[in-house]
Specification:
about 100 residues, about 0% helix, globular, single chain, mainly beta, three-stranded antiparallel sheet
């Protein structure tokens, strides 16, 4: 598991290399929650996925993404909001080995 460094701002784009993939993450706050888009090697993997505590973002192998992401509430069990990113809420990249053979 790798914690992806993010800022406590309402909208951000992060470029990282994870699992041998060049990944672009768009994280943005809407009126009704925090959402994410995931791109890998220039291809859109998922878009507009709501961010919920401990709920996987990609979820499906057929999308061709190696690994997955989860949000972790470091102080409880609430869904993330941008004001707590980096302190209360962390975004974790789960490597294929973390997915118990599912990845």
């Amino acid at each position: 598991m790798i914690i992806v460094p993010l800022q406590a701002v309402p909208n951000q784009t992060v470029n990282v290399q994870l699992g041998g993939q060049y990944v672009i993450l768009n994280v943005y706050e809407k009126f009704y929650g925090l959402f994410m888009d995931v791109y890998a090697n220039g291809n859109l993997i998922v878009a507009g996925v709501i961010c919920e505590n401990l709920n996987r973002i990609v979820r499906d192998l057929y999308l061709g993404f190696l690994g997955d992401f989860i949000w972790i509430d470091n102080q409880g069990s609430t869904d993330p909001v941008y004001t707590g990113i980096g302190a209360r809420y962390s975004l974790a990249y789960l490597e294929t080995i973390d997915l118990n053979g599912e990845g």
